[in-house]
UniProtKB/TrEMBL annotation:
Residues 17-261 form the ABC transporter domain. GO terms for biological process: peptide transport. It is a peripheral membrane protein. Keywords: ATP-binding, Cell membrane, Membrane, Nucleotide-binding, Transport. It comes from Nonomuraea cypriaca. Transmembrane segments: none annotated. This is ABC transporter ATP-binding protein. Belongs to the ABC transporter superfamily. It is found in: Cell membrane. Its main location: membrane.
Length: 276
């Protein structure tokens, strides 16, 4: 197996997120993730790709200090200047949201089923910008319009709106804290195929418009290639390859990456064949 070079930021600017030799262990000592290193500078877009169980979600959770109980992170994760590995929750509360926001695969993970969407978006806006009353209500409506949702969604409970609308609400919540880094963990995988492209385009536009850095996690190379400039390929909890998306798609070095590229091309060919 080749030892991949961690893709560093091209500029000398301090990275917003710096992951060095990250490992995640279960309580029994079993290592689920090892040797993961990458850095993300302002406005950069990095894709994390690998099949189910390769450790993508654990990487995202370790970055946010949100690993399930019993799991521990090792190595170093610096997010917004704070060392996340080993930090107390109280300290991380100040970093989460502001330094990095997360959009998960399943929007219901982020949403409270018993609270109207508007109130859920209002929470982080109030905390971040100190707004109250009328200005807060206006900011919530702005946030809804930014994710292309009608005003009436503010009064809806999560179960009263569609999966795509719920994910838009979750995106609005993540953006409400004005994070420098957005972590999107399979943000469109759970959605109806007809809305996947719409939500992806929305996310892409919002990240570009706000100049945010993006850590985009997906099992789908074609999707990652559309949004990320660099990729890290994970397999069985290890990094097998990393580099510029263009280079990796054109000339994959690791056999596993090659198989991902081949199957993406095969699907493309299949679609071409079926096209009228
Ligand atoms: N809460 C947990 N308890 C025990 N093992 C876990 C837990 N969460 C994940 N794992 C294990 O850690 C490994 C990496 O899982 P992870 O969820 O990060 O993979 P993934 O690449 O995100 O996959 P998927 O695309 O299916 O979400 C897998 O072997 C998984 O079984």
């Amino acid at each position: 197996m080749t030892t991949p070079e961690p893709p560093g930021p091209p500029s000398a600017a301090e990275p917003l997120l710096d992951v060095e030799d990250l490992a995640v262990r279960r309580a029994d000592g079993h290592e689920l993730l090892r040797g993961v290193s990458f850095a993300l500078g302002p406005g950069e877009r990095l894709g994390l790709i690998g099949e189910s169980g390769s450790g993508k979600s654990l990487t995202a959770l370790a970055v946010m200090g949100l690993l399930p109980a019993g799991m521990t992170a090792h190595g170093s994760v610096t997010l917004g200047g704070t060392q996340v590995v080993g930090a107390q929750d109280r300290k991380l509360d100040r970093v989460r949201g502001r330094a990095a926001g997360v959009v998960f695969q399943e929007p219901l993970t982020a949403l409270d089923p018993l609270m109207r969407a508007g109130r859920q978006i209002a929470g982080p806006i109030r905390r971040r910008r100190g707004l109250r009353g009328k200005p807060l209500r206006a900011a919530v409506l702005d946030a809804l319009s930014e994710v292309r949702l009608p005003e009436r969604v503010a009064r809806a409970y999560p179960h009263e709106i569609s999966g795509g609308q719920r994910q838009r609400v979750a995106i609005a919540m993540a953006l409400a804290s004005e994070p420098e880094v957005l972590i999107a963990d399979e943000p469109t995988t759970a959605l109806d195929v007809t809305v996947q492209a719409e939500v992806l385009a929305l996310l892409d536009g919002l990240v570009a418009g706000r100049g945010m850095a993006l850590l985009f996690i997906s099992h789908d190379l074609a999707v990652v290639a559309g949004v990320a400039d660099r990729v890290v390929v994970l397999k069985d909890g290890s990094m097998v390859e990393s580099g510029r998306t263009r280079d990796i798609v054109r000339e994959p070095r690791h056999p596993y990456t090659r198989s991902l590229v081949d199957s993406a091309w095969a699907l493309e060919g299949e679609l071409d064949r079926l096209a009228p």
